[in-house]
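To fix ideas, we quote verbatim one protein's residues and fold tokens.
>
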Amino acid sequence: MSENKKLENKLYKTTEKILYNYIFLEININSEEEELESLELDLKGMYAELADYERDAGVVTGGGFSSGISKTVEKKVIRKEKLKKELIPNMEAKIDKKINKINRDKNRMKNIEVAINNLDIIDSRAKQIIELYFIQRRKVADICDTVHLEDAQIHRLKSLGIKAIRNHIFGFDALEEDDNLISMLKAN
């Protein structure tokens, strides 16, 4: 098998995996957004705690600890410094990372939706079959009954749809010269 064909097969299988996991992407985004809310609440709590310590800072004067400072005040000063230098910056970084992941997943989801919607240009039946098979998770026999096509036609249109989505997701490098999609586009 040529290197080009191996790449096409790998991209095809990767596209199938992306489509199989599409419904879980939205679930994952919702879960990530809930985690983000929790992290943001934790950060607000840290800011409030830091504000309390800074308000109480007038109690401690001087540059260092003296024998007159109680253990409680010493712990507050240490906690305040830990909040400022470690805990708050780490939480802010964690929140930024979570936001980036959510945005990346939302962009992936939108890209898949656009690719599926663009199937109307090639064959609206391919779009319907991709939606029934991957999004609604229906069996091929059920799809045959729904769209009134034979099993072989369902598989052909599903393959056509996957190739078109593959080309959308991975770009024109994924196109092959003998691909049905190119033949259809040249015919038009």
Observations:
- The CA atoms of residues 116 and 131 lie 8 Å apart.
